[in-house]
Amino acid sequence: MSTAPLLDVRNVETFYGNIQALNGVNVSVSEGEIVALIGANGAGKSTLMMTIFGTPRASSGTISFAGTNITQLPTHEIARLRIAQSPEGRRIFPRMTVLENLQMGASLDKLKYFDEDVEKVFTLFPRLKERLTQRGGTLSGGEQQMLSIGRALMARPKLLLLDEPSLGLAPLIVKQIFDAIRELNRTEGLTVFLVEQNAFAALKLAHRGYVLVNGRVTMSGSGKELLADPEVRAAYLEGGRH
Amino acid sequence: MAMAETKKSAGSATVAAGLREAFYAAVIAFFMFVLLVGVKTDQNIHNELVLVPRPYLLATVVLIAAAVRFLQVVYLTPFLVAQKTVDAGTGQLPTAFALRFFSKPNLVIGLVMAAGLLLFGNSLQAAVGPYWGAYVGLLRAAAIIYVIAWVIFYFRSFISAHSYSLGFTILLVYPVVMVSLFGFQGSLKWVDNFGIQILIYVMLAWGLNIVVGLAGLLDLGYVAFYAVGAYSYALLGTQFGWSFWILLPVAGIMAAMWGVILGFPVLRLRGDYLAIVTLAFGEIIRLVLINWREVTNGAAGISGIPKVSFFGVISFNVSDPNYISKVFGIAQSGAYYKIFLYYLILALCVLTGYVTIRLRRLPVGRAWEALREDEIACRSLGINTTTTKLTAFAIGAMFGGFAGSFFAARQGFVSPESFIFLESAIILAIVVLGGMGSLGGIAVAAAVMVGGTEILREMQFLKQIFGPDFTPELYRMLLFGAAMVIVMVWKPRGFVGSREPTAFLKERKAVAGSFTKEGHG
Ligand SMILES: Nc1ncnc2c1ncn2[C@@H]1O[C@H](COP(=O)(O)OP(=O)(O)O)[C@@H](O)[C@H]1O
Ligand SMILES: [Mg+2]
Predict the structure, then answer these.
(1) Terminal CA-to-CA distance of chain A, rounded, Å?
(2) Helix orientation angle between A141-153 and A98-105, rounded to the nearest 10 degrees
(3) Where are the alpha helices (DSSP H) in B155-222?
(4) Which residue in the set B366, B381, B499 is minimally distant from A155, CB to CB?
(5) Which end of chain A is more exposed for a tag (fewer CB within 10 A), N or C?
(6) pLDDT for the residue numbered B455
């Protein structure tokens, strides 16, 4: 890469009390890329996502975004730099309607581009348009995931963080969602950092990938390389072809 | 033949079940009431405390519990089940029973009874003596309530479609109607004890609703802000003679400041921890008011708080040259001031409601609701949760402060006794009963709960039934408890449990279909 990466995570360590969840993690995401982070349950994937957002804080190392050091910034100010996320468990607002959830996503610009952006989200996920006045909590899992991603997109992010978007969803829905991500990347040049247990789908989608084991990055490479790697195949893919 | 057999055996099985359930109910009632009802503490002639056993009363209560349970199991439940099947067949399940109850012949009976008793009730009471007269009063009340309920039932769709404008119109003409019905002096009770009292609680509950209902921050010390507002007006008004119209915003700002002061230390707390700290805050304010005697005059309170004037133009002090009856050349009456206060608190309520509705559609109000749902998600959407929480505390407290200064002006006297924890609990109960976040539901809950306690005060005829020692207004907590249980059993999210969405796409027709299918989340 000739230019500096959009997101640069350097030697980051994160603790929960005495438990060390991240142990010197180095990850970088360049503009226009889809990067996947794969790893087993409890490897520290969600911790990395949340550390980028400042809760929990990295106890050492630096995280920079578009040239700004964001390691110590408050969470809401990190978000204001146009990083958006669809967090683990989706975290949509259950008593608010689909439309209101999307409006919450557009809080940063005080709804200035709302009408325009919401149409884009509807093109991407037509299902959401049908459910506009339904309460978030009553949506199906797949619809909730679409809403969570849609809400993140409403912030006009430069970087989209996705934490296990395929979790608990039927294969057909997973395909729909991954297609939408690929589409966004291709047409809008959206940069995506994706965390997945579903390694096969994630690596097929991503340009590059990292493997996280017990809070350390043990392997990295292009999506194709990792898919072909015998170790990766043995650990994450054999029998796990979702 | 065989069918009759099975029917009979089913019947006797139900009776057996009913007897069994009745027995259980009796046992439970016995243990519940053996100390509450079965004995009474009293003083004997030596001024010693003695226990007076009341076995007959206890037996009556236990028997009533058993009988009600028996009737419920044997008759009511099978009846309702059978009715449900029948009504499901006719396709009018929810309203079938109500339609039978609120039928036109019944209305005629109700109307005749209400009219007759309104006209001749007093002479009838005089004729039959106080004992039966009490029942005449009860019957009259029941007939009037039935007629009102009938009207509400038949116009329910119209009422629910126009609830806000209808409610507002009724509130607007209420004093006029009361004065024309009962005259100036007779209307005092209705305007003051019912109207103003209810509206104060509506305003307080709407203010607390911002903190609890919208932002989801459980505040058990809301009465502290009410106290701050009341004492701000009481102290500044008596010391410096400043007018209510200057001190109203001052009281609001003071209360809002205290809201922020409370908000800071509790920013990181949620749920039960937050509740405990806010409860302590309410008590601290009250204790300061009691003990800071030099300023607050302690438990004795502050009296001689100046009245509100009509923007300085018209005064309600008899001695002033611009006293209302001198200005208009009408007879002197205390009712003018009460009617004025009624419209003042109505205006304050409208302000509170309007601001709440506006705020809900603005980013800050929407952020409150999002905060209630998921704080972490809020932060990662770029919302500063610190300022969002503090504005909720400040704005909620501000309305408490407004209500407080109004309260001080109305009473002319404030003391710490008015700001006990029970007040916070009542306000919170109104918010929960009405349905958190719903202005209409909360207003109805305030009217029922506060109006209900005032009506209890009116039920002096119950003394005829239960004996002269019976003080009906002491049973207001029973009313609150019963309402709580009933609403929470039937509508666990409060009287109006569904949250009204605040956002619509411009092309609303396109989504009308899915709107009707919407579940209550
Ligand atoms: N809030 C927390 N407190 C303490 N330990 C935590 C917390 N969250 C995660 N952990 C621990 O950190 C490790 C990494 O968790 P996580 O990042 O959620 O893994 P992944 O998302 O890869 O499944 C796990 O061992 C988990 O138990
Ligand atoms: Mg995870």
Answers:
(1) 32
(2) 30
(3) 156-161, 163-188, 197-209
(4) B381
(5) N
(6) 79
Determine, for residues A95 and B373 on separate chains, whether the beta-carbon distance falls below 8 Å.
Answer: yes
Q: Is residue A78 part of a domain?
A: yes
B376 contact A CB<8A: yes
Examine residue A76 and state whether it is found in any structural domain, yes or no: yes
How high is the pLDDT of residue B466? Answer: 67
Closest ligand, as measured to the CA of A216: 1
Whether B381 sits inside 8 A of A84 (CB atoms) is: yes
Taking an 8 Å cut-off on Cβ atoms, the answer to whether B363 and A91 are in contact is no
pLDDT top residue among A232 and A35: A35
**Res A123 pLDDT > 60:** yes
What is this model's ipTM? 0.90
Residue ranges of domains in chain B: 2-87, 104-154, 190-458
Decide if A162 touches B, using CB distance below 8 A. Answer: no
**What's the one-letter identity of residue A60?**
S
This prediction has a pTM of 0.84
Closest C-alpha among A225, A179, A224, A174 to residue A198: A174
pLDDT band at A192 (very low <50, low <70, confident <90, very high): very high
Looking at the complex, does the CB of residue A134 fall below 8 Å from at least one CB of chain B? yes
Which residue from B381, B502, B511 is facing A132, i.e. has the nearest CB?
A: B511
Number of domains observed in the structure of chain A: 1
CATH number of B190-458: 1.10.3470
- Structure token pair of residue A225: 């390389």
Nearest-CB residue to B379 (from A75, A100, A136) = A75
pLDDT value of residue B489: 82
- A181 burial via Cβ count (<10 Å: 0-12, 13-18, 19+): buried
Q: What's the rounded Cα separation, in Å, for the pair B40 and B53?
A: 6
Ligand 1: residue whose CA is nearest its atom 24: A42
Looking from the CA of residue A40, the nearest atom of ligand 1 is: 22
The strand pairing partners of B427, in sequence order, are none
| Cβ contact, residue pair A138, B521, below 8 Å | yes
CB neighbour list of residue A237: distance below 8 Å, 6 or more residues apart: A199, A200, A227
What number does the ligand 1 atom closest to the CA of A50 have?
17
For residue B249, which of B141, B385, B405, B81 has the smallest C-alpha distance?
B405
CB atoms within 5 A of ion ligand 2 belong to: A 46, 88
Whole-angstrom distance, CA of residue A38 vs CA of residue A52: 17
Q: Domain range spanning residue A29?
A: 1-82+158-165+191-242
Give the per-residue pLDDT at B102. Answer: 80
From A12, A15, A16, A210, mutation site for ligand 1 pocket: most ligand atoms within 8 A of C-beta = A16
Exposed / middle / buried, residue A216 (Cβ in 10 Å: 0-12, 13-18, 19+): middle
In a domain, A129, yes or no: no
CB contact under 8 A, A134 and B518: yes
Residue type, B219: D
How far is residue B496's CA from residue B487's CA, in Å, rounded to a whole number? 10
B478 Cβ neighbours under 8 A, 6+ residues apart: none
Answer yes or no: are the C-beta atoms of B385 and A55 closer than 8 Å.
Answer: no
Which residues have CB under 6 Å of ligand 1? A 16, 19, 21, 39, 41-47
Domain assignment of residue A107, yes or no: no
Note whether B521 contacts A85, CB cutoff 8 Å.
no
Closest ligand 1 atom, CA of A215?
A: 14
Give every residue of chain B whose pLDDT is below 50, as ranges.
1, 507-521
CATH of the domain at A28: 3.40.50.300
DSSP secondary structure code for residue B298 in this structure: G
- Chain B closest CA to A164's CA: distance in Å? 16
Which residues sit opposite B418 in a β-bridge? none
